[in-house]
Amino acid sequence: MDVCPSLTAQDFKSGVKPIWCPGCGDYSVLTALTKAFAELNQPRESFALISGIGCSSRLPAYTSVYGLHGLHGRALAVATGVKLARPDLTVIAAGGDGDGLSIGGNHFLHACRRNVDLTYILMDNQVYGMTKGQASPTTDPDWRDSKLTPEGTGISPVAPLHLALASGVSFFARGFAGNPNELARLIVAAVRHPGFAIVHVLSPCVTFRPEQREWKNAVHQTDAEPSDTPEHALARFATDDGFTTGILFADNRPAFMPPRHERMSPAAIARRFGTGA
Amino acid sequence: MDVEVLDLPAPAVAVPGATGSVSVALVGSGGAGSMRAGEILLEAAAEAGLFGLMTRAMGPQIRGGEAAALLRIATTPVSSPDDHLDLLVALDWSNFVSFAAEIPLGPDSLVLADPAEGDAPGAVRASGARLLALPLKQLLRTVPGGHGNMIGLGAAATLIGLDAAVILRVLRHQLGRKGEAVLAANAASLSLGAEAMAAEPPLCRLATSDGAARWTISGNQATGLGALQAGVRFVAAYPITPATEVLEWLAPALAETGGVLVQAEDELAAINMTIGASFAGTPSLTATSGPGLALMVEALGLAVASEMPLVVVDVMRGGPSTGIPTKSEQTDLNIAVYGLHGDAPHLVLAPNSIADCLFTTHWAVTLAEQLQTPALVLSDQALGQSRAVIAPPAPLPQAAARLTAAPQEGGYLRYALTESGVSPMAIPGTPGGAYVADGLEHSERGTPSAQAAAHHAQLDKRAHKLALHDFAPHWADIEGEGEIGLLTWGSVTGAAREAAARARARGIRVRLISLRLLLPAQPSHMAAALAGLRGVLVVEQSHGRQFHKYLRSHYDLPPAVSVLSRPGPLPIRPAEILDQLLAWE
Known about the structure:
The complex is a heterodimer. Chain A has nine helices and eight strands.
């Protein structure tokens, strides 16, 4: 892999026209991600961008790096396989709140505790957009605009930060699609963090959640140092409104990578089945 | 012991009444050591240059409960358990009734049991087997630190004419580290058992050939070794009976050969991890059983659509649902062949012996890599958890490498339409090869497309690459000539093979056809294999006749077709197949 320092954010776009609605927050995430790729100053072929299913999971086709657009909910499992097989690659998983926290919820918590050196961009709009507007795991219980749950869901939303901390995440940042430069900085920091790093992006769905246009007034950046223990972070963000942006948590746990030795040939191992072995 | 058991040269032995094989079972409650004794006996057979097969009957208990080691030891390779046991050694009778149906006794069987354990169970007495006292408890009092299972083993070895010195050699090899005192107590126990049988005429004497090279291996180990030798260096899996031993064997073996095994959080993660590793360029595999396969089916479709090489080993057990986890059945054929949604051409293979688990898994990896598609390997509990003493396997062919793309200057088409249907795959890290592997239908470039032209072209591509590949000669094992065919697959092939041999010994000419490749179907090869047959007997282990229906949907069968199909957990015995063949004559 030759280092090619002259790549710009534009070089990391594929030119394929996104299926997203005008005004979708995911455009800004694409911009931030390609800026981050350029900032990381690595060749295109050193990245693998893995996603599941949903509006935001369409992201890989819009970039010019290696990608895999797989099954609903399974991005983190695929990304784990890529990284464990090829530790030399920079592996980023991306997807939405339904993909990551509902159908893929089990992989979310195990990715946190396994702590493989991955970056996970979780684009949260509190709605299923691709299926035209149903409640997601992060939707408030009294949201009544879905024909599936006309009385509201009546169940509590998941708080990605708290779930991740309780599951053993190594790095957690929150960004806002409306601030792509800051988001690019958070993605770069997450990629450089050795271990499982989540970038939780508040990415408005202007089609099914038009009220999210107001998020730009709700977000507030923290200038405090990131917490470095889950206990500290949980206490600090116990009453967090969900709109605090910045790097909220980072520990220095070593990333998980199974040991590799190459001391034996398969033929030598086969001989163990022989008599007298 | 049936003197017609094997149509192979008579063993060169001088003892009157000697035959080619002997079947022995050791039973007892969990912890009595029947399995351990069985394993030592099997290992001793290998040391003596014999062949053998050890199946097991176990209850669902994690520890304790019933356990039976069922062995058949022979002078020639063993393909199947025999119809009846020659010898049963009961270390105790507790829980025997719960698996009595799996212990085939007859009037020619000899049963050793301790009278102190009480009367033999009704099923044993009803069989007409001859009972002989082996006073284990009483004998144990004479050996401090002795073991009942070793007394039973000593008695069994004496009765089948296996040299005590060989058993001692195996014991020394296995127990040497535990010190001389432990070894001495075990040796003394063995001697007590042998002495107790000194007055009994031996049931047989097997011609041994010390020093002849043998392998002792289970089907699950052979599966793991086949994968390793074919180049698999990434495995992700979730524990499940009866597939776990594939993983337990592979974990250290992969670590020693530069590979990785990951215990995933569930089967969904397991197969998606292998898809990721394969995307990254590493030959990858997962192993599971029916319930896990059901969870993996969606991802198999992704592997088909995105053309990702991948192997899924399914060690089948009784189903549906949780079914009978510890016992064998051939009932995942339907889900393996038909379970994927959409038109999803893929590979389904099945090993037909323990030794063949090595070859077929190796071939599955090779085909998956060559054809860039998922391959399912349908093993089962009867193969996976049984151990065999076999001749050292022939060297495996060089595994074919994946067709990869060289660095590109631009315009790379991952899903290019080629003559063979296989297109060069760019591995991440290859400059200019970036593309998105997608479960969405796509153009040659890999860009999502919902257009008819792209869909039809890619459907054709994925079908053609399998249709154009030549799977001869390994697609099936075809043995013998005649007008009657035995059509079977998987573990049941062992019993069918022996039934065919017995039929031939009676002058009935039989052609055995055992399918190793179930998908894609091979109609022209099958037509040639069936040519000249006036009828076939289909043999399978399922309730719903899955294999028969599969055959009907893919092949033209001869006019006369008979089906011997029974669900698990009882194995289909050679004599049952032979009876059906005789009924045809």
